[in-house]
Amino acid sequence: MSAITVRDLSKTFAYYRKQSGLRHSLRNLFHREQLYRHAVANISFDIGQGEAVGFIGPNGAGKTTTLKMLSGILHPSAGEARVLGYVPWERRREFKRRFAIVMGQKSQLWWDLPANESIYLNKCIYGIDEREYRMTLDELAEMLDVKHLLGVQVRRLSLGERMKMEIIAALIHRPKLLFLDEPTLGLDFAAQQNVRQFLKAYKEEKQATILLTSHYMRDIEHVCGRALVIHGGQIAYDGKLSRMSESFGRRKRMKVRFAAFIPPEELHELVRLLAVVRTHDGLTAELEVSADEVKPLARLLIDHDLVEDWTVEEVPVEEVIERLYKAKFGNEGEGDDGEAPGTRQRHAQEG
Amino acid sequence: MEKHPERGSGMRKRDSGEPGSMQPEAGAVYSKRSRSGKYAAAFKIGLQASLEYRLQFVIGLVSLVFPVGIQSLIWTAVYRSSAQDVLYGYDYGQMILYTILSGIVAKFVMTQLEHTIAEDIKSGGLNTYLVRPVSYFGYRLSAYAGSRVVSDSVLIVLVTTVLLIAIRYGHTPLSPVRIGLFTAALVLAAAVQFLLSYAICALAFRLAEISYFFVITGLVVQILSGGMVPLEVFGETLNGWFNLLPFKYTIYFPVNVLNGRLAEGEALTGIFIQCGWIVLLAGAAHAAWRLGLKRYVGLGG
Amino acid sequence: MSTGLLAKCRAALDRGTDYVRLYGVFVKNCLSAGMEYRFNFWMGIAVEIAFLCAKALYILIVYQTDLHIGKLTPDHILLFIGTYTMMTGLYMGLFYVNFIRLQQYIRDGTLDLLMTKPVSLQFLVSLRYVDIGLPVPNVVAGAMMIAVGWHRSGLPLNGNIAGFAALLLAALAVTYGIMLLPALLAFRFVQTGAVTEIAHSIWDANNMPLDIFPQWLQRIGVYIIPVFLISNYAPKFVLNELAMGDIIWAVAAPVLLFVLVRWCWKRAVRSYSSAGS
């Protein structure tokens, strides 16, 4: 059974162009130029009950807008959605009782009060009975290891502790559906890991459906089995996360500094079978290579006694998304950025 | 909103002041020119910012109608029910004229600067001025003067209109001397009020939460300066005390110069007292800021 | 059929008690948070005392000039001023602290989170905060003025008090509606300070009995923008100056106003969620 069904959902924002200067502000008094931005354009997907989906995309891709529509905050410009059987933007009370939304940058805790006061307020808002509330609070605080901090004023907590409280407050009514928008943003490594593990455990224990956006690929890899990549308001990839990382996560960037000048043709000729040259200026170069071929490539370069120094890095997520997007919507003929042709085909099929 | 252009102009100044290869004399000449230049720039910024907020000013004027109108109606009721024609030394026409003029003059002299300056102190924005060859006081004064150009012109037109109407309804026409005295009294009143606000702002160095405090001082100043009702209402004893305070020279005094209740000689004396207050308050503000800054720098901002 | 209705009434009652309980939690939260900032608490009180001094000026004038407005003596006028003072305190403490926040909620997106809560958004936004310190001086001073005015004008202490209190409650509801309406402009405009300023200066029209205003203004203030209901009807009731029709209007106006506010609120939220940002 699907928890979320989305069909051709679109959201268009109208905004005004604002130019600086007195003349323009005077003119704006009478006439404002209205512009439109398609934040989300005709997206469709289904998410099953108990599924955890990572929502990936660069800033401004439409992730938050989609989450806001699915949680009933925003009304779409077109399209349909059913969440737990409800139309979210009708904002039915029964619907609101069954999901939770956590936004990394927005707090629902009262700064000057201990977190448990804000959590208790949510208990009253959601109408949870006393026993169930106690149990849930204990359990969640235990899982997140913040039991001893419940009575401390929120403003005295660290960012990570505060986020954990935020999560407890959001989950106190034991929702079966969670929308999480950048829940780990700005947290230190340990706290990120905590939150990640918690989400995974919560999902498994409660069979909860999770839709998670994050800047950190790690969060998504840990919690989600499926990825929804959105770019420019459109879905660029929808499928297993493992297959997505297979194609990109397993490709590496090798940055090389040569001991001496090497002509471009020579370098190309040398690595042709193993890697793609992304940039090259004679003394340094950036090569892209599949993970299995890092070693042979390194050996090759050492054997030719060319290298002075090198580093190996992951392909940045933004770039992966960009490529997925291009693979789906871009013109097929352009192979100018050194992309391996094979991977592109694979992705076009995936969507 | 105001912050942005300020910062920009500050940068420009520092850049132009830096060239190290310049001869000392040339540098001095340069800095002199740039001094007048930078305050002119501050003036312009104030002017621009006030244009940005013109709608707010207009609405502020419109909302002035309500308290003035309500007070006039209250006085109307008071005069109608009273057996006497003259209350607190004002006849009905004078009282209404006082109410209207004091509302306008209050708009003219009240600075509303407290929050801006306190914000500079609290947020550390003051640092940007301290490290630059610009006096914060001079900067604020120029920007303030600039921000008043448009609104004060409108207010003066308003005062003139009110007076013309009053004269039509039997108020004695004003002699040129009186107009001159009023202009002087008004400008000096604005200066007194500016210095008063500026001195009060030095408290932001000491008090953590100052916005409440400004509400109180604003209100007290308004009452004591005759912005709500003529000071005669308070009785003779209190008025004896008021004579020793600077407040009455901001609203009460210019209004009474204008409506003719003060003789020309008295008006002139009042103007001298205003000048005295300006000197005193300038000294007090300077001292308060010196003390505050010492503390500010000591704390490291 | 009738059991269905009964169940409905019951549900409504349950929801009502839920809201009352929730409001209790709000108050408790605000009390404990208020204790955190004792300095602000006392400063808030000081500010209100300063405003009281300004109001005292009017009382001074009323008694100094022995002001009579129609049949109203200075003591009667004190009753009006007292009511106004008390209502100002209640407005500041119960509503104002919430209404000024609306703009911030919209700007920083807190409204989004509040929208996902399974209780009335309007309730959450407009009643979430209660300032305990702010209204104290006004309510205490107002009550004192009412008591003094009541006593000095020789008014009887009987059922009148219940009527007076009931009309104060109705006035509170009118206050809620009238002052929330301009605050709703925050959905439209970034800056609403000027509008609030105007609303507050209109509010100050209640400083004196409405009889000082010309007839046409009285009509507007009673029937179109019912500000005058806030502090005039309760004293007028004890002075036997209200006809039956007036009393009916005093009860109907808050209801009508609430319906209007509800309608505007819904429209504003709908446009917010379809515009977005």
From TrEMBL, chain A:
Q: Name one GO molecular function term.
A: ATP binding
Outline the segment boundaries, as ranges, of region: Disordered: 330-351
Q: Which UniProt keywords apply?
A: ATP-binding, Nucleotide-binding, Transport
Domain of life (superkingdom): Bacteria
Question: What residue stretches are annotated with the ABC transporter domain?
Answer: 24-257
Q: Which InterPro entries match?
A: AAA+_ATPase, ABC_transporter-like_ATP-bd, ABC_transporter-like_CS, ABC_transporter_ATP-binding, P-loop_NTPase
Nucleotide-binding in keyword set? yes
What PANTHER family does this protein map onto?
A: ABC TRANSPORTER ATP-BINDING PROTEIN, ABC TRANSPORTER RELATED
What's the protein here called? ATP-binding cassette domain-containing protein
Automatic annotation (TrEMBL), chain B:
Biased amino acid composition, Basic and acidic residues:
1-17
Give the matching InterPro entries.
Answer: ABC-2_transporter-like
Q: Which UniProt keywords apply?
A: Membrane, Transmembrane, Transmembrane helix
Q: According to the lineage, what is the superkingdom? A: Bacteria
Chain intervals for the UniProt region annotation (Disordered): 1-30
Transmembrane portions of the chain = 53-75, 95-113, 149-167, 179-205, 212-231, 267-289
Pfam families hit by this protein:
ABC2_membrane_6
Name listed for the protein in its UniProt record = ABC-2 family transporter protein
* Protein's organism: Paenibacillus profundus
UniProtKB/TrEMBL annotation, chain C:
Superkingdom of this protein's organism: Bacteria
Keyword Transmembrane part of the UniProt annotation:
yes
Is Transmembrane helix among this UniProt entry's keywords?
A: yes
Report TM segments. 41-65, 77-97, 129-150, 162-187, 216-235, 247-265
Which InterPro entries does this entry report, sorted A to Z? ABC-2_transporter-like (IPR010390)
- Protein name (database record): ABC-2 family transporter protein
Q: What start-end ranges are recorded for coiled-coil regions in this protein?
A: none
Q: Sorted alphabetically, which keywords does the UniProt record give?
A: Membrane, Transmembrane, Transmembrane helix
